[in-house]
């Protein structure tokens, strides 16, 4: 496989179906929940700006990878920068690897001919801003306020359908399903999680299996249901293990 095609896959949505659950179940659920919300905000910002500004991509004859939609900002760059900068701000020793991955993913979009430099720079700025804010600001809300916030934020995202189309149901659905499951299992029910790393890794695998099942096909109703199950089921199992 072409080197740049391989690198650009690290910025694809599918990569974060694995990375976010890994952080959530293997590293720390609180950090995983925050980075999950940061990625959804990053994705929502990108798709909204794309549909408002409607700036074109480079000509198709330059493309060396499949692409769709408008050019500015680069979604791969924004989402990967959000994730890796968040981790770098939280765990300083990951700064070097975060910097290298962000730079390579952004460069891959240019080398593959699917984005201009302006698109990548725009994605980088969005990602750094959201990664910084998400890593430094943690609202001190009660469980009822958290639940209400997730529901209202999801409804607000659904309302963007006239502007961003089915992305509104995808992003809003993920937030509603995973968010409600997280708050119910952690804040309301107080589910614990096993200390044994092998058990935590097994919970991660269960979550990823459910989320990837939800990525097959494009049924709108699948997003909230399977993201809910992908969070709640492993939390329930983990509590029983503990």
What order do the helices and strands come in, and which of them pair?
Layout (H helix, E strand, L loop, with lengths): L2 H7 L3 H15 L1 H25 L21 H16 L4 H17 L5 H20 L6 H16 L2 H4 L2 H22 L8 H18 L7 H20 L1
Helix pairs in contact: 1-5, 2-3, 2-10, 3-4, 3-6, 3-9, 4-5, 4-6, 5-6, 7-9, 9-11, 10-11
What would you call the quaternary organization?
A: single chain
Strand percentage: under 5%
Which term fits the overall shape? globular
Structural class: mainly alpha
Distance between the termini: 43 Å
Strand and helix order: HHHHHHHHHHH
Query: What does the largest sheet look like?
Result: none
Low-confidence blocks of residues: none
- Helices, by number, come to 11
Summarize the structure.
The protein has eleven helices and no strands.
Would you mind describing this structure in some detail?
This protein has helices at residues 3-9, 13-27, 29-53, 75-90, 95-111, 117-136, 143-158, 161-164, 167-188, 197-214, 222-241. With 242 residues, it is an all-alpha fold. Helix 2 (13-27) packs antiparallel against helix 10, helix 4 runs parallel beside helix 6 and helix 9 (167-188) packs parallel to helix 11. The chain starts with a helix and ends with a helix.
Structure characteristics:
single chain; 242 residues
């Amino acid at each position: 496989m072409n080197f740049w095609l391989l690198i650009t896959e690290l910025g694809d949505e599918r990569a974060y179906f694995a990375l976010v659950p890994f952080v959530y179940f293997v590293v720390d659920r609180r950090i995983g929940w925050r980075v999950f919300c940061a990625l959804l905000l990053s994705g929502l910002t990108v798709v909204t700006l794309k549909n408002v500004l409607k700036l074109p991509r480079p000509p198709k004859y330059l493309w060396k990878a499949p692409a769709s939609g408008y050019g500015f900002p680069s979604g791969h760059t924004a989402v990967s920068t959000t994730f890796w900068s968040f981790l770098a701000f939280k765990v300083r020793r990951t700064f070097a690897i975060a910097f290298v991955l962000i730079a390579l993913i952004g460069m891959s979009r240019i080398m593959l001919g699917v984005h201009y430099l302006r698109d990548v720079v725009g994605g980088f700025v969005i990602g750094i801003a959201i990664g910084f804010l998400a890593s430094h600001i943690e609202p001190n809300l009660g469980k009822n306020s958290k639940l209400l916030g997730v529901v209202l934020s999801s409804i607000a995202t659904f309302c963007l359908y006239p502007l961003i189309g089915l992305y509104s149901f995808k992003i809003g659905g993920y937030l509603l399903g995973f968010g409600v499951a997280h708050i119910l299992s952690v804040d309301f029910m107080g589910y614990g999680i096993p200390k044994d790393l092998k058990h935590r890794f097994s919970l991660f695998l269960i979550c990823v299996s459910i989320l990837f099942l939800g990525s097959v096909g494009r049924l709108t109703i699948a997003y909230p249901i399977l993201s809910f199950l992908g969070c709640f089921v492993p939390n329930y199992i983990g509590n029983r293990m503990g």
